[in-house]
Design brief:
By secondary structure, the chain is of the alpha+beta class. It has 12 helices and 11 strands. The longest helix has 36 residues, at 90-125.
Length: 331
């Protein structure tokens, strides 16, 4: 390896070393693992390129060699002349790279503006929302069941159903739908909700936004038969479970960020789990996990304005599920 940036001692492989590189060694150069996504490779590439963009003329050979390593790591073509050290139309290449590797920043900005517009429109130009449901999980909503339940049966005038397609634990690669799920989830949660709907892989990531449901489940035990009760599953967690989960999925997590409260190790029911794939599709949720079966977890939000309203909404969904299941079993 040769040292090309004396100030920062940044090491860039020589042209001969690059010729011997494979994809894994190229990823190591960028500080990435073998399973790194295209997005991470591009982001690291752009960070490395920016180190030497100030003096393009002096650093032309370094920039070309970084381009060559990126091409090996990503498999994407990059205009480069590693041997000669003379860039081909470097100015145009820089503009092309900047647009190609920074488009997501503009997309994120546009999404933020759009979300802000929706919030302003909702607050100032539409009737007040009288019931909020936030659905967070790796799924999409393709039906009107939730809206119909809120308006036609529970008689709310202007309910809001917000759905964020999110891979909260980063266990699968994000795509065009889920890439900005975290931003959408934050926007929805910031406005408050009565009910939070997740899938079984997402619940623990948002446990801090939920309230225990022990009393509600006691109501279900009192009102439902043993057979009916067997069709739903209470989900038990403690806040410590949530803290430990967040540490595992966030490598940059600091111990100082979480200060466990007294009793945070006590487990409560934080959700009611439904695992019937057909029913889940019928209420408008399309599972997008490649490695997980469809699931819905119904929970109370800690920003609820009316526990009674939240209970009635969730109870109605459970009743529909149980009744549909009983009809199917009878048939």
């Amino acid at each position: 390896m040769s040292v090309d940036n004396k100030e920062k001692k940044f090491v860039v492989p020589s042209s001969d070393e690059i010729r011997e590189m494979d994809r894994i060694s190229a990823l190591v150069f960028f500080g990435l693992r073998e399973d790194a996504t295209d997005y991470l490779i591009e982001e690291k590439y752009w960070q490395y390129i920016k180190r030497f963009r100030v003096d393009r003329k002096s650093n032309a050979d370094i920039l070309d060699r970084i381009n060559a390593v990126y091409q090996i790591a990503s498999g994407k073509e990059v205009s480069t002349t590693v041997d000669s050290g003379v860039p081909i139309d470097k100015k145009k290449l820089d503009i092309k790279n900047y647009i190609y590797y920074s488009w997501w920043k503009y997309a994120l900005g546009l999404l933020a503006v759009f979300v802000a517009f929706l919030i302003v429109k909702q607050v100032f130009f539409t009737p007040a929302i009288d019931f909020r449901v936030v659905a967070l999980g790796h799924f999409q909503n393709s039906g009107s069941y939730m809206e119909d339940l809120a308006t036609e049966r529970l008689e709310y005038k202007n309910p809001f159903i917000g759905v964020a397609d999110i891979i909260a634990d980063n266990s699968e690669q994000a795509d065009g739908y889920s890439q900005y799920g975290t931003l959408a989830a934050s926007a929805f949660l910031s406005t408050g909700a009565e009910v939070i709907i997740t899938d079984s892989k997402t619940t623990l990531s948002f446990l801090a936004y939920m309230l225990p449901m022990d009393d509600f489940y006691a109501r279900l035990e009192a009102e439902l038969s043993e057979e009916q009760l067997s069709r739903i599953v209470p989900i038990y967690y403690s806040l410590d479970d949530h803290y430990e989960h967040m540490k595992r999925i966030d490598q940059n997590h600091s111990e100082d960020e979480v200060l466990p409260e007294p009793g945070s190790d006590v487990k409560h029911i934080y959700g009611i789990l439904i695992q019937d794939a057909e029913f889940i599709r019928s209420v408008g949720f399309d599972n997008r996990w490649r490695s997980q079966q469809p699931s819905l977890v119904l929970s109370f939000s800690n920003s609820e304005s009316s526990r009674a309203d939240a209970e009635e909404f969730i109870y109605s969904i459970i009743s529909d599920y149980i009744n549909d299941a009983l009809v199917d079993s009878a048939a």
